[in-house]
Amino acid sequence: xxxxxxxxxxxxxxxxxxxxxxxxxxxxxxxxxxxxxxxxxxxxxxxxxxxxxxxxxxxxxxxxxxxxxxxxxxxx
Length: 76
Ligand SMILES: [Zn+2]
Ligand SMILES: [Zn+2]
Known about the structure:
mainly beta
């Protein structure tokens, strides 16, 4: 269900917001959600507790399974 894994310790990360911290090693990351087709950053659409991803470039909804997540470590 959750495709995001901490690169430092392999714990599952919460991918629903733009920034997350690892529950296990406390590392902080910025999350970019990228379109699998055009590699542009996706818009997060929040609805009923779920998050949908929309590509403004392709003008289409991207299924969460297809989203390419990119993690950038954030300095503490
Ligand atoms: Zn970790
Ligand atoms: Zn796209």
